[in-house]
TrEMBL record:
InterPro entries: Beta-barrel_TonB, Beta-barrel_TonB_sf, Plug_dom, Plug_dom_sf, TonB-dep_rcpt-like. The keyword Hydrolase does not apply. Residues 34-152 form the TonB-dependent receptor plug domain. GO terms for cellular component: cell outer membrane. It is found in: Cell outer membrane. Residues 389-865 form the TonB-dependent receptor-like beta-barrel domain. Belongs to the TonB-dependent receptor family. It is a multi-pass membrane protein. It holds the Pfam family Plug. It comes from Pseudoduganella lutea. This is TonB-dependent receptor. Keywords: Cell outer membrane, Membrane, Receptor, TonB box, Transmembrane, Transmembrane beta strand, Transport. PROSITE patterns: TONB_DEPENDENT_REC_3.
C-alpha cells in the first residue's frame, strides 16, 4: 500500500517481465514505468480488515471526502440528491465526483450502476479474487476516453491460480451493531505453462448488519449548547398549527402576553417535550431568523437526524471465473465471467405530515382524541378542527429494499506477433439492473389523508401509550407495498490494441501503441407507479431506453530523447452519437539523471461526456407558486405584476439533450528520490481546471442568477415577459483544483525482522468552484459543504514487521479538520459552546498474522484501536446526514475486532 510509482514501487516485479501499467497501453519492463500510480495488494487489504471496495477507497488519500458511499450518499438532500443508487458505492478521485473517475477491471470498462446510470458500483468488484489495485492519480482521457479526468482505479484479478482455498472474515464492533461477515471460496486448476490452460473461479458472500444512530452516543442532534438542534416541528407527539378556520385560528396569545404565537404543543406548555423519546423543547434561540420565536416558543422538536440508520443491512454475493487457454507459445485466449447481487434494506425516518383543511386531513371536532387546549390557550376554539404537524411513527420507518445485479462477460485474445509486437483483442458485454421495492412506511396520499380525517388515528400518543388496534388496522389499509422503480444499463464493447518497438533512435528504441474502442451503451429507467400519489415516495421521470454509440481510436508513443529522458505522447479521438467528437492529447516525460533521482510530469486535456440521466431524463413541466419575482424585468418595469409578482411561472426540469461535455486541462510535475538506501520519497504536484461543469439546478437558482444564466430564461420576444424557465441539468462554469501527493517508504531488515513504513498523503492546496460563468471562483478547501468536504490534508500510513511465520501491521488514517457550518448562518449569534472548527480525525488499526499452521493463515486485528469517536460537527441535519458527526469523514463503528481465517486445501 502507498507505493509511489513504478520507478520505485514495482521493483518487486520480475526483472524482465513485460506488463501493462495503468495509464499506458505499452508493455514494458515494470521498473521502467514513470506514472504516479499507487498499488494496494490483496495481502494489505486483508490485513487491514477491509471487506469491501468502499472501505478500500477510504485508504486512498487522493479519493474525495464526499457523499459517494452507502451511508451518506443515500440521504443527501437538495438538487444533488441521488435516490436511485441505493446500495451502491462509488470512487471519486480528487473529489470530482463518481462520473469523473474511471473504474476498470483488468484494464477494461464495466457497466455503470443500473439505478442512476452514472458510474461503476464498487460493490460489484470481487475483492477476494483480485491480486492488486492500481490507482492512477492523473488524468487519462488520452488513453481511456471519458470518465478519466480525476484518474483511474484498476482492479487486477488473479491469473493462472492453482489450488483451492477457503476463507472467512468476522468483524464485530465492541459497542454492538454493524457486524460484518464474509465467506469466500477460491479455486483454480491447470498450469498455463505446462498444461496450456488454467481455469479459476471465486465466489464470495458478504452479510453486514444494520448500525443505527441510537446505538452510538455521539449521534445526537440535540446539543443546543454547541449550536446543534433540529429545525423541525414535525414531532411524534404532534405540534398544533394555526390557520384560518382551525381551532387555533390565525394566531393565539397567552394570558398576560401580547405576543401572537403560531404553534403549540401540550407537552411544551407543560415543560415536558422530552417525555417522548427523540423529542425536546424547540431551541428557538438558534433559529430566530429562520423560525421566529412567535412560532416556536411553545413547540417541541424532534431529533430525526439522530434517528437515521448509519449503515444499512446488506447481503451481497459476488462471483468471478476466468479460463485461460494457450493456443501456442505466442497466443492465448481467455474467457472471463463476473456477476454480483447486492440486496440492501434502506431506512429513513417516518413520514412528516402537515395537515390542512383543504386536504381533509385535519383532526375533526368530536374525534375520540380531540385535544382541547382551552385551559392553556383562552382563544382556543374547540368547535373547529385542529391543524397539526406530525411525524407519523405508527406508519413505520420508510423502508426500501434495493436489489442491484451486475454482470460482465468477456472473450479476449492476446499475445505477440512475430515475437515483437504485443496485441490484445476483446469483446465484452456488461450490464447492471437495479430495482426498488417499498416494503413499509409509505402510504397512498389520498387514503392516508382520508384516514387521518376520521379522527381514529391519534397524533398525540404520549410516553407509554399506543394507537388502538382500530387505528393500526386503518393505517395498514392505506399503505403501499410493492415495486416502485427499476433501471437498467448495458454496455457492449469491442476493443483492441497493438504495441511494440518500431524503430531505434540514438538514445534507444521508440515504442508505439495504437488501438480502437467501439462501444454501445444503453440506459432505461421506469417508475412503475406514480410516486406523486404515494406520500414522500422517491420519484423520478421515466427514461425510455436511450442508446448511444462510441467510436474511438488512440495512439501512444514512448520516445527516448536522450539517454535518461523519455517522453510519452498520446492522443485519442472519441466520437459520441448525438454528442459529437472530441480529441484529447497528452504529453508526459520521465527524466532520471541518476539511479536515485527521477523527475516526471504530464500535461493533458480531458473530457467527461454527459450521462444518460443528465441528457435524457424525462422533462417535467411544473409551476412555481404565486409571487415569483423576475429581478431583471422588475428592475426595468417597477410595479408591473407581470414582472414583479408573477402569478404562475412554468418551468421545465430533468434531462437536457443540449448539454456539452465537461472539458479539462490538467497537469502534474513530480520528483521521485532515494536519498539514502532503503528510503524513497515522491512529491507530485497536480492541477486540474474544468469548464462546462454539469450541475442540476432549480428554477429558483436560475432566476436568482439571471445575469449569468440568460439562456435558461425564455421570454416572450414581444413583451419581454418570462414564458418559462429551463431548469434541471445545465452546463455551469467550472472548478480549479490543485495540490500535492506525497509518498514515503522506508524498508529493510534488522536481526531477522523485515520491516516497511509507508505513507500515502494528499495536500489539497486549493479547490475553487464557480457555479456560473462570470461568478468569482470561491475557495472550498477546509470549508463545510453539503456535498463534498475538501480537506487540506489526508493520509494513510502503515508500518509492517515480519519474521518467520509472524507478521504485524499498524495502520493510521488521518483527516484534517475544517471550518464547521455556522448555525443559522450566524444570524442568531453564536452559542457559548460553539466551536467553529471540526477537529481532525485519526484512526488506528492493528493486526497480527500467523502462518505457522499447515496451509493456514490466521489474521486477528483491531480496527479503531483507541475507540476514536467522530469529531463533533454542528451542521444542520436537514442538509447533511449525521447528527453531531459526519459520515463523509469518520467511521461510526467504533472499536471492532476482526478475525480472518484462510485455509488452502491444496
Amino acid at each position: 500500500m502507498g507505493v509511489v510509482g513504478p520507478a520505485i514501487a514495482q521493483q518487486a516485479a520480475q526483472p524482465m517481465q513485460r506488463v501493462e501499467i495503468t495509464g499506458s497501453s505499452i508493455k514494458r519492463v515494470a521498473k521502467e514505468g514513470a506514472l504516479p500510480v499507487q498499488t494496494i495488494t490483496l495481502d494489505t487489504i486483508q490485513k487491514a480488515g477491509v471487506t469491501n471496495a468502499e472501505q478500500l477507497m477510504r485508504l486512498v488519500s487522493a479519493n474525495g471526502t464526499g457523499a459517494d458511499n452507502m451511508t451518506s450518499g443515500n440521504n443527501v438532500f437538495g438538487a444533488d440528491a441521488d435516490r436511485t443508487s441505493g446500495g451502491a458505492s462509488f470512487a471519486s478521485l480528487r473529489g470530482l465526483g463518481p462520473n469523473a473517475t474511471l473504474v476498470l477491471l483488468n484494464g477494461r470498462r464495466m457497466g455503470n450502476n443500473g439505478g442512476s446510470g452514472k458510474a461503476v458500483d464498487l460493490n460489484s468488484i470481487p475483492l477476494a479474487a483480485i491480486a492488486r489495485v492500481e490507482i492512477l492519480k492523473d488524468g487519462a482521457s488520452a488513453i481511456y476516453g471519458t470518465d478519466a479526468i480525476g484518474g483511474v482505479v484498476n482492479f487486477i484479478l488473479k491469473t493462472d491460480y492453482r489450488g483451492l482455498e477457503a476463507s472467512t472474515t468476522l468483524n464485530g464492533t465492541e459497542a454492538g451493531g454493524g457486524m460484518e461477515r464474509r465467506y469466500s471460496l477460491l479455486g483454480g486448476v491447470g498450469d498455463l505453462e505446462s498444461d496450456g490452460w488454467n481455469v479459476m473461479a471465486s465466489v464470495t458472500r458478504d452479510v453486514n448488519d444494520q448500525l443505527s444512530s441510537n446505538q452510538r452516543d455521539f449521534a445526537n442532534g440535540y446539543q443546543p449548547w454547541r449550536g446543534l438542534s433540529p429545525d423541525t416541528t414535525g414531532t411524534p407527539y404532534a405540534n398544533l398549527l394555526t390557520g384560518a378556520g382551525s381551532a387555533l385560528g390565525t394566531g393565539f396569545r397567552m394570558p398576560g402576553d401580547a405576543t401572537t404565537y403560531l404553534q403549540a404543543n401540550l407537552l411544551s406548555l407543560q415543560g415536558n417535550c422530552d417525555s417522548v423519546p427523540g423529542m425536546s423543547q424547540y431551541a428557538s434561540e438558534l433559529w430566530t431568523n429562520v423560525t421566529p420565536i412567535t412560532r416556536t416558543k411553545f413547540s417541541c422538536a424532534y431529533d430525526y437526524g439522530g434517528d437515521y440508520v448509519m449503515t444499512f443491512p446488506v447481503e451481497r454475493t459476488t462471483g468471478v471465473s476466468r479460463g485461460t487457454f494457450k493456443l501456442n507459445a505466442d497466443h492465448r485466449v481467455f474467457v472471463e465471467l463476473l456477476g454480483s447481487r447486492t440486496e440492501t434494506t434502506a431506512q429513513l425516518t417516518p413520514l412528516q405530515i402537515s395537515t390542512t383543511l383543504a386536504a381533509g386531513n385535519a383532526y375533526p371536532v368530536g374525534g375520540p382524541h380531540y385535544q382541547n387546549l382551552s385551559s392553556y390557550i383562552p382563544s382556543f376554539d374547540a368547535t373547529k378542527p385542529i391543524l397539526y404537524k406530525w411525524r407519523a411513527t405508527p406508519i413505520g420507518n420508510r423502508t426500501q429494499d434495493v436489489t442491484l445485479d451486475n454482470y460482465r462477460a468477456l472473450v479476449a485474445l492476446e499475445g505477440t506477433l512475430g515475437g515483437k509486437y504485443d496485441y490484445k483483442l476483446g469483446l465484452s458485454k456488461s450490464g447492471s439492473k437495479a430495482q426498488v421495492d417499498l416494503v413499509d412506511g409509505y402510504a397512498w396520499t389520498d387514503k392516508l389523508y382520508a384516514a387521518l380525517g376520521t379522527g381514529i388515528i391519534n397524533p398525540w400518543v404520549g410516553a407509554g401509550q399506543s394507537q388502538t388496534q382500530q387505528a393500526m388496522d386503518l393505517i395498514e389499509s392505506t399503505k403501499f407495498r410493492g415495486r416502485l422503480q427499476h433501471g437498467r444499463t448495458t454496455m457492449t464493447q469491442l476493443d483492441g490494441a497493438i504495441s511494440g518497438e518500431v524503430f531505434d533512435l540514438p538514445a534507444g528504441a521508440v515504442s508505439m501503441a495504437a488501438g480502437f474502442d467501439l462501444r454501445k451503451e444503453t440506459y432505461s429507467f421506469a417508475q412503475v407507479v406514480d410516486a406523486t400519489k404515494i406520500l414522500l415516495a422517491p420519484g423520478n421521470a421515466n427514461l425510455d431506453q436511450a442508446t448511444r454509440y462510441i467510436r474511438a481510436v488512440y495512439a501512444e508513443a514512448l520516445v527516448p530523447v536522450i539517454k535518461d529522458l523519455e517522453v510519452q505522447l498520446a492522443i485519442r479521438k472519441d466520437n459520441y452519437s448525438l454528442i459529437g467528437a472530441t480529441t484529447n492529447p497528452k504529453v508526459a516525460f520521465r527524466y532520471q539523471p541518476t539511479e536515485r533521482l527521477l523527475f516526471r510530469g504530464s500535461a493533458s486535456k480531458g473530457f467527461l461526456a454527459p450521462s444518460f440521466t443528465q441528457l435524457y431524463a424525462g422533462r417535467l413541466s411544473q409551476e412555481l407558486p404565486n409571487g415569483v419575482i423576475d429581478q431583471e424585468g422588475c428592475a426595468r418595469n417597477p410595479g408591473n405584476p407581470d414582472f414583479c409578482a408573477i402569478p404562475r411561472l412554468d418551468y421545465n426540469t430533468g434531462g437536457n439533450p443540449g448539454l456539452r461535455p465537461e472539458t479539462s486541462k490538467q497537469g502534474t510535475l513530480g520528483i521521485v528520490a532515494e536519498p539514502f538506501r532503503n528510503f524513497s520519497m515522491s512529491l507530485d504536484w497536480w492541477a486540474i481546471n474544468i469548464r462546462d461543469r454539469i450541475l442540476n439546478r432549480t428554477p429558483q437558482v436560475v432566476l436568482q442568477n439571471w445575469q449569468y444564466l440568460q439562456q435558461y430564461i425564455v421570454r416572450d420576444q414581444a413583451t419581454g415577459v418570462i414564458d418559462h424557465v429551463e431548469a434541471g441539468w445545465i452546463n455551469a462554469a467550472g472548478l480549479k483544483t490543485r495540490g500535492v501527493d506525497v509518498g514515503l517508504r522506508y524498508d529493510g531488515t534488522y536481526s531477522g525482522y523485515k520491516y516497511a513504513a509507508v505513507l500515502d498523503g494528499t495536500y489539497m492546496d486549493s479547490f475553487k468552484f464557480a457555479e456560473f460563468e462570470g461568478q468569482d471562483y470561491k475557495e472550498q478547501v477546509s470549508q463545510f459543504n453539503t456535498r463534498d468536504v475538501y480537506l487540506r490534508w489526508k493520509h494513510s500510513a502503515s508500518v509492517t514487521v515480519s519474521k518467520g511465520n509472524w507478521s504485524a501491521l499498524l495502520l493510521q488514517r488521518y483527516a484534517s479538520g475544517y471550518n464547521d457550518q455556522v448555525p443559522n448562518g450566524g444570524k442568531s449569534g453564536f452559542p457559548a459552546g460553539f466551536d467553529p472548527r471540526v477537529h481532525h480525525y485519526t484512526k488506528y488499526d492493528v493486526s497480527a498474522t500467523y502462518t505457522g499452521f499447515k496451509n493456514t493463515t490466521l489474521t486477528v486485528g483491531i480496527q479503531n484501536l483507541f475507540d476514536e469517536e467522530p469529531p463533533f460537527t454542528a451542521h444542520n441535519v436537514d442538509e447533511v446526514v449525521g447528527a453531531g458527526w459526519d459520515p463523509r469523514v469518520a467511521d461510526p463503528r467504533g472499536r471492532a475486532l476482526s478475525f480472518n481465517l484462510k485455509y488452502k486445501f491444496f
